[in-house]
Design brief:
Number of helices: 18
Structural class: mainly alpha
Helix content: over 70%
Radius of gyration: 23 Å
Order of helices and strands: HHHHHHHHHHHHHHHHHH
Number of domains: 1
Number of strands: 0
Distance between the termini: 90 Å
Mean pLDDT: 75
Largest sheet: none
Shape: globular
Low-confidence stretches: 5-22, 24-32, 262-267, 269-282
Length: 363
């Protein structure tokens, strides 16, 4: 005859299954309030997303709303939001290409090619020196330098792959870039107006000195439409430097690990592995953006679709920033640390002030 479990054990089992898992960040609210918030989090996020989709939402509001929710009640879909934000951002950039004449992109890239090379090179060298002086992990220092010099998270992801960076230095670099991007959204617009920068000048400055393209777009969009198109063109022209810089870091990493290859693994296999990794992280959406610009420049029907595409791109940018803000956590902030943050701030000040000085002296 089958033995039945005692009633007490059955009751305990039901109770364990019924209790939801709470975030540690909710403990300060008290048990009862925290438990209710756990059940309400999906509804709160959907309500906030509805606000972001309204015509009154701005990129800064979307970013702030996502961050406030993530830090206060937690994000029920953090992993999904991280993946969706990356894809949606690339889609938005391509949509911007349909509203941008190709000549704008080429002019921004060609006119600033020498300055881009000089500023990227100097930033990387300064970052290397600061990393050694501050005693920062070499890989974390390299990632912060690359993210500041080129285009934030995209550059960090590419360089992290070719130098085989672990999760910890990546978290440090991403956290530093995220915090400085948030600061840029708050200060660049007021500084630009205070200094009397034209939309052209502000677009160039934002495209050079702000890390991620999402923050570049958010900051420039609030300054004006011409500032937005110029900023995106400048940032995308700088993003093309991911390829040579990643190759340079791959060479540097190869030198430092030349004597550490595992037994039985040939040099050719290592080279093929690194080459495959580089290919996976080349931002192919830049090429699609350029193709969209060609269509905008030479296909007349695209002019009639411009308002719809522009509105779609704006909505997509707001949703992307909401998802980025929703991915923030106390752990990510704590992982930044004071010394990497000092390096990030000093590098950012160097490129921001240097670029602004060049622009004011007659860009």
């Amino acid at each position: 005859m089958k033995e039945e479990l005692p009633p007490a054990m059955e009751i305990d089992e039901v109770v364990v299954e019924a209790v939801p898992v709470r975030d540690a960040s909710l403990d300060l609210l008290g048990t009862g309030v925290a438990d209710r918030i756990v059940w309400l989090r999906p509804a709160l996020y959907l309500l906030a997303l509805a606000v972001v989709l309204t015509p009154w939402a701005s990129p800064a509001l979307a970013l702030g709303l996502g961050a406030v929710l993530a830090l206060s009640v937690g994000n029920p879909w953090a992993a999904f939001g991280h993946k969706a934000a990356k894809t949606l951002l690339q889609v938005c950039v391509v949509l911007l290409g349909f509203t941008m004449n190709l000549r704008t992109v080429l002019d921004a890239g060609m006119s600033g090619a020498v300055f881009a090379a000089a500023s990227i090179g100097c930033t990387l060298l300064l970052g290397y020196w600061l990393g050694r002086k501050l005693g920062i992990d070499a890989k974390a220092s390299a990632l912060i330098s690359a993210g500041t010099a080129i285009c934030g998270g995209s550059a960090i992801a590419a360089v992290a792959t070719v130098i085989d960076a672990e999760e910890e230095p990546m978290a440090v670099a991403m956290g530093t870039v995220f915090i400085l991007n948030a600061v840029a959204l708050l200060v660049f617009g007021p500084v630009g107006h205070a200094l009397g920068l034209t939309q052209q000048q502000f677009g160039v400055w934002a495209g050079i000195a702000i890390h991620d393209i999402s923050s570049v777009v958010a900051s420039a969009a609030g300054y004006g439409p011409h500032a937005l198109t110029t900023a995106v063109a400048v940032k995308l022209s700088r993003a093309l430097w991911i390829i040579p810089v990643s190759l340079g870091f791959a060479w540097w990493a190869g030198r430092s690990k030349r004597g550490e290859q595992s037994a039985g693994e040939s040099t050719e296999e290592v080279g093929e592995s690194r080459g495959a990794k580089r290919v996976r992280h080349i931002p192919w959406f830049i090429g699609i953006f350029l193709l969209a610009s060609v269509l905008c420049s030479f296909v007349p029907v695209m002019e009639r679709l411009d308002p719809v595409i522009s509105r779609s791109s704006t909505i997509g940018i707001c949703v992307t920033l909401f998802l980025i803000g929703g991915g923030l956590s106390r752990k990510a902030i704590a992982s930044v640390g004071i010394r990497p943050m000092i390096q990030g701030v000093l590098l950012w000040a160097f490129i921001a002030i240097g670029a602004l000085a060049v622009i004011k002296l007659g860009w």
